[in-house]
Amino acid sequence: MQISAKADYAVRSLVELAADSGRPLTCEGIASSQEIPFRFLKSVFRELRQAGLVRSQRGCEGGYWIGRDPAAISVAEVMTAVDGEFLTLRGARPDTLAYPGAAQGLPDLWRAVEAAAQAVLGRTTIAELATKGAREDGAGRELSREPGREPSGEGGPASDVSPAVSASA
């Protein structure tokens, strides 16, 4: 399974925005801190803005803000926003595949892979990743959150990802 650079950059950018939600961040600043090619990131931000996942502010104090509550944005939603279909096999969705003969059961495997990936990425939120990153880097950054809403603790959905899957991301 391969995750596109566009999806990886989009998720990393939203995590960066969620982790530092007190001010707008520039595309240049995010590109630098996440070691992402600036020109490519600008096109990713265009798609994120069209999907409502970021909002922009012009001017000398301008930059990008996360577009919604990061706890309501799943990694699967971000991937779909920038890549279109969640998982395809040679351009076809797994639910449209049919193979002849001995391989006729293989589409069921591809559908199961898609369902498993959708389950993990669909329940993993940008807020969880930002909170986990802040704990791990020792920066002590806190997410802005709704009153009375606590950030998720250890063992959240992001920790359910196996090392093999997370290594390919």
What does this protein look like?
By secondary structure, this protein is mainly alpha-helical. It is 48% helix and 5% strand. The chain has 7 helices and 2 strands; from the N terminus they run H-H-H-E-E-H-H-H-H. Helix 1 packs across helix 3 (38-50) and helix 1 (5-19) packs across helix 6 (126-137). The chain is elongated. Mean pLDDT is 82; it is low at 139-169.
List keywords for this structure.
169 residues; 2 strands; mainly alpha; elongated; two-stranded antiparallel sheet; 7 helices; disordered C terminus
Give me the secondary-structure topology.
Layout (H helix, E strand, L loop, with lengths): L4 H15 L7 H8 L3 H13 L3 E4 L5 E4 L8 H9 L22 H18 L2 H12 L25 H6 L1
Antiparallel strand pairs: 1-2
Helix pairs in contact: 1-3, 1-4, 1-6, 2-3
Q: Name the helicity range.
A: 40-55%
- With strands numbered from the N-terminus, the spatial order across the biggest sheet is 1-2
Strand content: under 5%
Characterize the overall form: elongated
Short description:
The protein is mainly alpha-helical and 169 residues long. The protein has helices spanning 5-19, 27-34, 38-50, 75-83, 106-123, 126-137, 163-168, and strands at residues 54-57, 63-66.
